[in-house]
Design a protein that fits this description.
Rhopdopsin 7-helix transmembrane proteins; elongated; disordered N terminus
Length: 330
């Protein structure tokens, strides 16, 4: 009887800690991506590389959420003692798939942001910096895929007990995670602050410039989530595998979802601008000079790239219909 009293009850299920924030913010992210794609198609009639990448990231995000719900249905979040061997095996298999999909999805989010910034600048340093970020992100994500599939041999040892299993020491993996987390923070800061140079050239009110800065810097929220996620690194491989993985998995997903929300909101600046003007926060004003042109060396009409996503109105001008700045709105 004493043992029965000490056994945790069903109320210890921690699945809600993952599902509630992930499903709530995931719904917001999905709505914003749909709005972004609708706005892009309405203004330009086609999608660009960064749009396709964020659509792919959103599809993977929805897939990841579906996998997490399936894992929770099998018992993820409950204490391990409550699992049957078959349920434990299936839940661990779903957790493995959850991590693989997340690695790819997070990669696509950062690459999408970098690709969108590539369309805003023509300077050599600007483009080289972004290409380096893209290449580094792809390499890091590829390394995590290798770790995911190679850390235990055979691979089925990740979700079931097999004889003669060989697994890597987790200490180097944790140390690698700390190093990559630091790299991610630097990358996110770079991607969030790079647009400041462009925003300084805008002939707009101070209030609107602040709004643009806020929208373009929302990626710092993903950086904040990544910093919080780092606090869970020392607990890697410790505790009940069905409960200890809930918090780090939730923070990892929020990092991805917040990234999707941030880059989608930045592309919906015009919509946010109109809402704030109706509320009286922003005032109507005349746009005397197209965005992003004062301090940048843009190609002539004949050299303007077809895939840039910009409309051309005179040599060196980057505008679209009704004086809106497509670089922000579409």
């Amino acid at each position: 009887m004493a043992d029965a009293v000490n056994v945790p009850g069903y109320s210890s299920n921690k699945a809600g800690l993952y599902l509630i924030p992930v499903c709530t913010l995931g719904t917001v992210a999905l709505a914003l991506v749909v709005a972004r794609i609708y706005t892009r198609l309405r203004r330009t009639g086609k999608l660009y590389l960064d749009d396709w990448l964020i659509v792919a990231a959103q599809v993977l995000s929805v897939t990841d959420t579906a996998i997490a719900i399936a894992a929770a249905t099998h018992g993820w979040g409950k204490p391990s003692y409550m699992f049957t061997p078959e349920a434990l095996k299936e839940t661990l298999r779903l957790q493995f798939a959850l991590q693989v999909v997340w690695i790819i999805g997070l990669c696509l989010v950062r690459v999408s942001v970098a690709c969108s910034l590539l369309r805003f600048g023509t300077g050599r340093f600007w483009r080289i910096s972004l290409y380096l970020i893209i290449g580094l992100q792809v390499l890091i994500s590829s390394s995590y895929i290798v770790i995911q599939f190679g850390q235990c041999t055979p691979i089925s040892a990740n979700w079931e007990t097999v004889p003669d299993v060989k697994c890597w020491n987790t200490t180097p993996i944790v140390n690698y995670g700390w190093a990559i987390a630091a790299v991610y923070i630097v990358m996110d800061l770079t991607l969030s602050l790079m647009p400041v140079r462009l925003i300084r050239t805008l002939h707009r009110s101070t209030t609107e410039k602040v709004l643009i800065c806020v929208l373009m810097s929302l990626g710092l929220l993903a950086t904040a989530v990544a910093c919080v996620k780092m606090t869970t690194f020392n607990d890697f491989g410790k505790g009940d595998v069905m409960q200890a993985t809930i918090k780090p998995s939730m923070l990892a997903r929020l990092e991805e979802i917040v990234g999707i929300i941030a880059c989608s909101l930045a592309c919906l600046k015009s919509t946010v601008d109109k809402v704030l003007k109706k509320l009286g926060i922003l005032k109507e004003h005349d746009l005397t000079t197209p965005s992003f042109v004062n301090a940048m060396s843009l190609p002539s009409i004949g050299d303007q790239r077809e895939d840039s996503g910009y409309g051309v109105s005179g040599k060196g001008s980057v505008v679209v219909e009704h004086g809106e700045t497509e670089g922000y709105d579409a």
